[in-house]
């Protein structure tokens, strides 16, 4: 989505924290599949993937997916953003 395009449908923010990139690949697939699915196209849904360190707050998004790699039972540092006020929140847990 170009910055100059008007947003007319729901917006989804996918925030990801990963060590080796596997969780990022899952997040990229989620963003891609949301946008090109029949329902996503019908709703004119847009999805944005951001690394946790650079993610904007959830204001202006209708849903937030938080993705983190897990090592030894612990999430990567800073996997989450403050999602208070978000309509929907999802959790993605990956292995790398």
Q: What would you say this structure looks like, in words?
A:
The structure is a single chain. This protein has 96 residues and is α/β, with parallel strands linked by helices. It has a single domain, classed as 3-Layer(aba) Sandwich (Rossmann fold), CATH 3.40.50.360. Helix content is 22%, strand content 32%. The protein is built from 2 helices and 5 strands; from the N terminus they run E-H-H-E-E-E-E. The protein has helices at residues 22-36, 38-43, and strands spanning 11-17, 46-51, 63-71, 74-75, 88-94. Strands 1, 2, 3, 4 and 5 form a 5-stranded mixed beta sheet that branches. The radius of gyration is 13 Å and the shape is globular. The model has no long low-confidence stretch (mean pLDDT 78).
Strand and helix layout:
Layout: E1 11-17, H1 22-36, H2 38-43, E2 46-51, E3 63-71, E4 74-75, E5 88-94
Averaged pLDDT, please?
Answer: 78
- Which overall shape is indicated by the principal axes computed on the Cα atoms? globular
Provide the structure class.
alpha/beta
The percent range for strand residues is: 25-35%
User: Main beta sheet: strand number and arrangement?
Assistant: 5 strands, mixed
Q: Using the coordinates above, name the CATH class.
A: Alpha Beta
CATH names the topology as: Rossmann fold
Order of helices and strands: EHHEEEE
Distance between the termini: 27 Å
Low-confidence segments: none
Number of domains: 1
Count the helices. How many? Answer: 2
Number of DSSP strand runs: 5
Question: What's the helical proportion of residues?
Answer: 10-25%
* Name given to the CATH homologous superfamily: Flavodoxin domain
Using the 3D structure, state the CATH architecture: 3-Layer(aba) Sandwich
Computed over alpha carbons, the radius of gyration is 13 Å
């Amino acid at each position: 989505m170009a910055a100059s395009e008007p947003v007319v449908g729901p917006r989804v923010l996918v925030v990801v924290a990963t060590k080796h990139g596997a969780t990022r690949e899952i997040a990229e697939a989620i963003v891609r599949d949301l946008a090109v699915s029949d329902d996503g196209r019908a709703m004119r849904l847009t999805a944005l993937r951001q690394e946790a360190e650079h993610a904007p707050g959830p204001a202006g998004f209708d849903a937030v997916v938080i993705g983190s790699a897990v090592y030894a039972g612990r999430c990567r540092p800073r996997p989450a953003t403050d999602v208070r006020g978000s309509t929907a929140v999802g959790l993605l847990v990956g292995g790398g």
